[in-house]
Automatic annotation (TrEMBL):
<feature type="domain" description="ABC transporter">
    <location>
        <begin position="6"/>
        <end position="239"/>
    </location>
</feature>
<dbReference type="InterPro" id="IPR017871">
    <property type="entry name" value="ABC_transporter-like_CS"/>
</dbReference>
<keyword id="KW-1003">Cell membrane</keyword>
<dbReference type="GO" id="GO:0016887">
    <property type="term" value="F:ATP hydrolysis activity"/>
</dbReference>
<dbReference type="InterPro" id="IPR027417">
    <property type="entry name" value="P-loop_NTPase"/>
</dbReference>
<keyword id="KW-0813">Transport</keyword>
<protein>
    <submittedName>
        <fullName>Branched-chain amino acid transport system ATP-binding protein</fullName>
    </submittedName>
</protein>
<keyword id="KW-0067">ATP-binding</keyword>
<keyword id="KW-0472">Membrane</keyword>
<dbReference type="InterPro" id="IPR052156">
    <property type="entry name" value="BCAA_Transport_ATP-bd_LivF"/>
</dbReference>
<dbReference type="Pfam" id="PF00005">
    <property type="entry name" value="ABC_tran"/>
</dbReference>
<keyword id="KW-0547">Nucleotide-binding</keyword>
<dbReference type="GO" id="GO:0005524">
    <property type="term" value="F:ATP binding"/>
</dbReference>
<dbReference type="GO" id="GO:0015658">
    <property type="term" value="F:branched-chain amino acid transmembrane transporter activity"/>
</dbReference>
<dbReference type="InterPro" id="IPR003439">
    <property type="entry name" value="ABC_transporter-like_ATP-bd"/>
</dbReference>
<dbReference type="InterPro" id="IPR003593">
    <property type="entry name" value="AAA+_ATPase"/>
</dbReference>
<keyword id="KW-0029">Amino-acid transport</keyword>
Amino acid sequence: MSENILSLKGVHTHIGAYHILHGVDLDVPRGQLTMLLGRNGAGKTTTLRTIMGLWQASQGSIRFDGRDITRRGTPDIAQLGIAYVPENMGIFADLSVRENMLLAARGARSIADIDTARLEWIFGLFPAMKKFWLHPAGKLSGGQKQMLAVSRAIVEPRKLLLIDEPSKGLAPAIIANMITAFRELKQTDTTILLVEQNFNFARQLGDSVAVMDDGRIVHRGPMAELAENEELQTRLLGLSLAAHQ
């Protein structure tokens, strides 16, 4: 489908005295995985946090699924069907995997209230979640914590996932597992906006791509087009995907 589930138009964000986003125009097509790429400090995380209402846009508009969410609070935005997986994962270290999942399932008072088929689907994506179901989340490995963070975000059906650098610091085998899981997620009705620094990860998963620089979107197009154009990669990102094969 060509319809955009999320659109940012002329979005500016200030954090204290700092002007971080300078008129971001970004469209996220429904049913696709859109990569948001850019050098460190380009404004990628600020964009996700602004969409989620954690930081308020000082100018411009954000529309999600036909609604203006520019001035809505984070709980209201989440209720509309957006889940956010921050770079720091946002899990509760002192709680078990089971308790973390229950907290993320807003409509459930007990594990029995969570759709069993959906839980089994998540266990299929991330078997470690079933293995460590009763273990404290803080004792999981880095890769397992990332799996838990994503599992929490999808424990209930979401229209849009905002995910910030899911492969950061992970071993290659865990990254491969994450790629497989995201490929399966892409087959559902979930739209994904994903910030990533691992360009091989981006190449394998992205349908479309937007590149940020200095708080602005400076390139939009198919991910495959960027993956095949080393000159464009170098100009936009400072290095080529080929260097990260």
